[in-house]
Amino acid sequence: MAGNFSFDQLKKAVSSGEVDTVLACIVDMQGRLAGKRFLAQYFVDSAHDETHGCNYLLAADIDMEPVPGYKAASWSKGYGDFVMKPDLSTLRRIPWLEKTALVICDVLDHHAHDDLPHSPRAILKKQVKRLTERGYIGYFASELEFYLFSETYDSARKKHWQGLDTASPYIGDYQIGITTKEEGVMRRLRNEMQAAGIPIENSKGEWGPG
Questions:
Q1: How does residue 58 score in pLDDT terms, banded at 50, 70 and 90?
Q2: What is the pLDDT of residues 7-38, one digit of tens each?
Q3: How far is CA 167 from the centre of its chain?
Q4: 7-120: which CATH architecture?
Q5: 140 vs 147: CA distance, rounded Å
Q6: 23: how many CB neighbours lie within 10 A of its CB?
């Protein structure tokens, strides 16, 4: 997905003090953003070209423990770095973080500078290329479903992630009356994702408490 912020706009925003932090991120095997927070001036001066990250990031489990046996990176093979190459076409402002922009990086081999074939972004790029070669265009719309809890991370951890209190004790599928009390969260999600360049249609309750 294309960003909503050009590199020239970023440089101007950094000079004026509107942006002081740039998140340079990859997508890990669990679909999470992983990366670095750059001082924005350093990013526009240097890191916009490339930075680096440890290759265990694409060979770890959900708890960030290195998983043995991978060909790309393991204790037996040794761990090193890969290249994180910012794709400046993905650059965007992040409304929910003060004075912050974000860019998605391609993951490249440290020596050959080719896409690492097992990185999620490389896999997606390969599939898009196959579609293009066959004369197709791929369209994607996501339906993000989640539970909303009346908990903090600390309170949930103390409960060992069990018996958590949901934001609503009732099934709120399509129910405007029930979901109205969650608008403090949902309104921000809709508006701030749209402001970040992620098109939003609507939000609604789903089948299940919370």
A1: very high
A2: 999 999 999 999 999 999 999 999 999 999 99
A3: 25
A4: Roll (3.10)
A5: 23
A6: 18
The pTM for the full model equals 0.90
Where in the chain do CATH 3.10.20.70 domains reside?
Answer: 7-120
Task: Look up residue 73 and give its DSSP letter.
Answer: S
Give 3-19 as a DSSP string: -S--HHHHHHHHHHTS-
**Mean pLDDT for the chain overall:** 94
Q: DSSP assignment of 139-207, as one string? A: ----------BS--HHHHHHTTT-SPPBS-SSB-TT-HHHHGGGHHHHHHHHHHHHHTT---------S
Q: Which two tokens stand for residue 61?
A: 């489990």
| pLDDT tens profile 143-201 | 999 999 999 999 999 999 999 999 999 999 999 999 999 999 999 999 999 999 999 99
d(CA 53, CA 37): 12
Distance from chain centroid for Cα 19: 19
Locate 169 and state its tokens.
Answer: 């004790």
What's the CA angle centered on 79, arms 76 and 85, to 5 degrees? 145
